[in-house]
Amino acid sequence: MRVNFTVNGRPQEADDVWEGESLLYVLRERLGLPGSKNACEQGECGSCTVRLDGEPVCSCLVAAGQVEGREVVTVEGLADYAKQRAEAGCATGACGTSLQNAQGWQAKGTDSHTGEGAELSPIQQAFIDAGAVQCGFCTPGLLVAADEMLERNPNPSDADIREALSGNLCRCTGYEKIMDAVRLAAARQGEAV
Amino acid sequence: MDFLRPASWEEALAAKAEHPTAVPIAGGTDVMVEINFDHRRPEYLMDLNRVGDLSEWEVGEESVRLGASVPYTKIMENLRAELPGLALASHTVASPQIRNRGGVGGNLGTASPAGDAHPALLAAGAEVEVESVRGSRRIPIDEFYTGVKRNALAADELIRSVHVKKADGPQQFSKVGTRNAMVIAVCAFGFALHPETRTVRTGIGSAAPTPIRAKAAEEFLNAALEEGGFWDNGKIVTPSVAKQFADLCSAACNPIDDVRGTASYRRHAVGVMARRTLTWTWESYRGTRRTTEGAA
User: Fold this and answer.
1) What number is the ipTM of this complex?
2) Which residue in A56, A143, A177, B67 has the fewest CB atoms around it within 10 Å?
3) How far apart are the first and last CA of chain A?
């Protein structure tokens, strides 16, 4: 079957989708967006977290056909998504992340250690600055979940952060640095206002 | 596999009548796991996300009509006052991502003994509204669970909503697991005080082939509270009464040994949770009584 939906602000079309396929599979294998990670395929790990009509969900548990006509934001579009949020909408009318740009998206820029030269959302920059990335496999899911929490709750307590990230597992167990990163992003967000 | 996309409830019923083997999918948090792991290859998958009123709820005089697909997040955010037991249970479901998708209809459809909503629904008192092209009926929650992962639905029926009685007193929910998030219950316990009828109700999860009530324990506690004049005098529940209640709740269990826990552990833990939830709710009831008396 064919599925039409919006990915990172741009309309996309996926063809030859098998009816039992997950949104995660469509994103990774049909649209070439491997940012959302495939780990447990049963909603236990949160590595495949995306926004579906604004809400963080495990894309491995959404049937592809269920996203027809709906909006999905993946980690590849997070920088643009955060930018639009900060600017309160799309001023130029040409926002969103094209499939080509999303497919080629890297956090590298000119310096992968500092994130310099790359288009990053504040939460991505905070993860780099706080050293919250180890093997990196859980990172995309954590970024999407943490970004959504900071949107809802600009002043999170540690308990709020732990609760919001409770569905994302990091098997390098780098949770303390991840907490630091979210606290850092929240503090920077507060300064910017 | 065929993907069915009914745009309305009527279309969904018609599709289910035409294809009784169709598997309904709403949040997908149970169904997709089975498909991803190749445990299930349904002929038809029927998406219910397009049936808008399944995600709505209405607060009535006596009860709340909760649409089958209302996600747990919404229950926690909006129905804490009316359905405190279910709101507490919702909070223990998996993770934020899962709670944004999963709802009570799915818990009932899967009818796993470990489903978190069941003890709260049993304790509060609920009816499941199911419908087919043949008509609509309401199944009392006590009669809904018929076996391990089996329920009272006919092949052409769909779950439309659950009618849960609004709390007329304190309710509690307790769950045993290895951590707070992402845990399937080793066992769980729901408890509700119903001061209007001077009764109590219980719900036990994951300690029998189906979710169950501990009816003998309820009857014992109803009699003991009445006899001691506890509803009126607001005294603390005697430790011996609480212990007897806990023992009867343990005795109501019919658990198995499995990877999550042993039968004897489950029996013991249900007793502990029964005593604790009784104490928590009773303290809360006594507190409310004092407040009302002070105000009068």
Assistant:
1) 0.93
2) A177
3) 46
